[in-house]
Amino acid sequence: xxxxxxxxxxxxxxxxxxxxxxxxxxxxxxxxxxxxxxxxxxxxxxxxxxxxxxxxxxxxxxxxxxxxxxxxxxxxxxxxxxxxxxxxxxxxxxxxxxxxxxxxxxxxxxxxxxxxxxxxxxxxxxxxxxxxxxxxxxxxxxxxxxxxxxxxxxxxxxxxxxxxxxxxxxxxxxxxxxxxxxxxxxxxxxxxxxxxxxxxxxxxxxxxxxxxxxxxxxxxxxxxxxxxxxxxxxxxxxxxxxxxxxxxxxxxxxxxxxxxxxxxxxxxxxxxxxxxxxxxxxxxxxxxxxxxxxxxxxxxxxxxxxxxxxxxxxxxxxxxxxxxxxxxxxxxxxxxxxxxxxxxxxxxxxxxxxxxxxxxxxxxxxxxxxxxxxxxxxxxxxxxxxxxxxxxxxxxxxxxxxxxxxxxxxx
Length: 411
Fold this sequence. Notes:
2 domains, three-stranded antiparallel sheet, 49% helix, Glycosyltransferase, globular, 12 helices, mainly alpha
């Protein structure tokens, strides 16, 4: 077993961030690169924990997530060919993935041909996120125009009269889910911050109001998962399901809305984070678990990788706002939990599922997690540098064209 991932222990946030940057730049960024040879510049859908690729279909949202990740890697200063990969991949997605009605398909086969032409709300959200980041990173305004066209299609065909969006042609509704709406909020925030267009702020605020009105459990402040056609919680146990990782993810988003002076944003973040920390952490394994119920009972004690990244992001965003030592300690604990997943035979791969007994599920490393990991580690690096930490240092800013979307250079 590779033992080079040992947690930095009681090290400073700056030391932890340097540790994260080294792993991200020297291991993960190289392993998950797109193939630039040939006509299909696609990123891996998954890898074995030994780093081996296979010929499987490629989901569009995973490709879009990789576009986001490599834009962030470029912003952070990775010297690999991120620009060439992003250029080729985002052009491929727009040219081959866009349907005549303006929506984007679900999957390509491993050769890059359309494998599943159905459109799904989750996929559209990540395509919007990819267009926002690629448009900014590559300085290509036409990608912002493509985002406008997709936004128009969503508004025209999938906007629901009582709020929110139709989930597309794959999900069977009900139940309706908060999850694709959460990612719409993320992409609307990103698009507003890179373009300044009022429509994206309007759409972001619509989703935030929808969350506060329909997705939050009034008594506890927890985030519910499943809803009926009127976006009311389902009857029975399914209507009481809470995923701590999603509580953390929404808390992180509401911290950004607080920077916009959105009403009650910090209060929502506080309640979400408090519930997830009180009921969603296993302190024996040091990780955030998959599911609980609104009364705090454990529903699924396994722990996937992605909730660990969202726990870290929420702690860092709250640290920037509050400066509290509790948030700094929580960020360090979240990072220590995340590192467990990086202990693989091939450096740069990861494990996805920690079982309740402490064993690992034997399955490929999902490429979808690169987005979660890159976003969390970028938050860590930015937060440490904004605090005058090591790395590039406070006196060595990044180029203006590569600034983070959320205006967090000098925190």
